[in-house]
Design goal:
The longest helix has 11 residues. A seven-stranded mixed β-sheet has the order 3-2-1-7-8-10-9, with helices on both faces. It has a domain of about 160 residues: 3-Layer(aba) Sandwich (Rossmann fold). The chain contains eight helices and ten strands.
């Protein structure tokens, strides 16, 4: 409680405490030229599953206005701190889902909350020493509803990134209207049970094909990122 009060006071004066998180390996899949080209030529970015927004300086370097969405209130203040220094970047604290105003259990993971999800870990994640250490009750919101509420011109953000720890399909089902304006999607996929009942690769591929998106490559591993574009 005392720490939160100090951080709030510092934020008003544009100062902050910053904990340094040291990664033992690369945290993201190496981007290819196809992906870099799609981002560069996009009108703007929607990043769903923002965590702390470590990619913010890259988006700013590319002069891309960005909407960040993160469900976890524990890391959201850090996200806001990271993106507020960049023009045309805004962060929102909402749990994206396929329906509005549903109370949902949100599981907090033991790896700095990076794998937190509406789903529990499956066998594959448990074998990697990942576990859920607590739960939060969060209210859900469809992405289409959020777009309406904040009066967002979604055509200004036609490149999407989804990193929602198994809940990617839920978010997409709540974004059917907005998908009409989207041209490219980088989405995290799983071929194995990293999350119990989480979206699988074939389900995501089928759904996005129905909306005119086609994958630019096949998954590099059982848990990786795939770029989809409209022809």
């Amino acid at each position: 409680m005392f720490k939160k009060i100090i951080k709030k006071i510092l934020r008003k004066t544009q100062w902050r405490f910053k904990k340094i998180y040291i990664n033992k390996s690369y945290t993201n899949q190496k981007p290819g030229l196809e992906l870099i080209s799609e981002i560069y030529n996009s009108s703007g970015i929607v990043h769903m599953g923002a965590h702390r927004g470590t990619e913010a300086p890259i988006y700013d370097w590319l002069h891309k206005k960005t909407i960040w969405i993160e469900a976890n209130p524990i890391v959201f203040d850090d996200l806001k701190d990271n993106v507020c220094q960049f023009t045309n970047q805004k962060a929102y604290n909402f749990l994206l889902y396929d329906e509005d105003n549903k109370e949902v259990n949100f599981n907090i993971s033991n790896n700095d909350s990076a794998s937190s999800s509406v789903y529990d870990f499956g066998e594959k994640s448990l074998s990697m020493n990942l576990k859920m250490i607590s739960k939060l009750k969060l209210n859900s919101k469809k992405f289409d509803t959020l777009v309406e509420e904040i009066l967002l011109d979604i055509s200004d953000y036609n490149f999407w990134i989804l990193d929602l720890q198994g809940a990617e399909l839920l978010a997409l089902k709540g974004a059917k209207q907005s998908l009409k304006k989207c041209k490219s999607i980088l989405i995290e996929i799983s071929k194995e049970e990293y999350y119990i009942n989480g979206a699988k690769w074939e389900e995501l591929k089928y759904f996005l094909n129905e909306f005119g998106f086609h994958n630019k490559w096949e998954p590099e591993s059982s848990h990786s990122d795939v770029l989809f574009t409209k022809k």
